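@channel sequence for tomorrow's demo:
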Amino acid sequence: MHRRAVLKLAACSAGALALEHVAPALPRYQPILDGHIHLFDTNRPGGVPWPTKDDTALYKPALPERYEALSAPFGIVGAVAVEASPLATDNEWLLNVAERHPVIVGIIGDLVPGTPSYLTDLDRLHANPLFRGFRYGNLWSRDLAADIDKPGFVDGLRALAQADLVFESANPDPRLIRAILNVAQRVPSLRIVVDHLPHAPIPPAQAARQEYLANLRRLAEYPGVFVKLSEIPVLLNGRLVTDAAYYRHSLDAIWDLFGEDRIFFGSDWPNSDHVAPFAETLAIVRGYIAQKSPAAQDKYYFRNSIAAYRWKPRRPDQSVA
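structure tokens (generated this afternoon):
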């Protein structure tokens, strides 16, 4: 199975394919839990670290009311909000926003293991059941590959695992995948979520590509490692590719490696607006997932997010039947 997946991942087509019209609405056939959205308020005093004011696609408030109005017609019943700020106070800001809006079933915050306040902050945030872990990867000028060897970092990850919370990565590349594998090896009991894996660049050089694919295979051997199929849409010659066949080889490779029990959906809203509107992002995903069995689709859209984050329903439509 792993060899077939590696061949698919390495052979993703780069040819231009015909664009197809995407309907503005999709039929609701089952509840969907969006495992990756960002919330921020560009109107708040002092502004926000991200997005920047020159980002015309994103620089406006992205709050639960706007997300819920946009996503509910597509059958989305809840979401996990992932940090969009390195400010320590924004963990509380995100929790406060989530608490007022039951559509948000959990948040992934921002913490730095090994810092003097880390354990205190972790205990305080963990007291809120909406806090499901934190993200650490290629953002906010951090380097997991180097930071993991800093004093207290691995001990901090062990404390996270003991709290039954999630360690989430961001913006993967071969170096980060190698670092995430290092984390899994040092703290095997830790649940790990790999964000945006379809967007990770595959090295063109043969030796580097083989190392990257070997590290993915080894990472997939850890049952506590989950993958978020997010940042899937691609622009080709300035136009959005909507044909599911364009994405199938690379996505099948990830699916074959990690299996139907450890892959789940994330829209990356509103960051996804840089590439495609929400409806078209979801349509591309559905075009691919439609080839899977109904049970696998249910896992992908809903149940696997529970296994990864262990979130609790806040509304009747978020409960597992």
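heads up for whoever presents: The longest helix spans residues 294-309.
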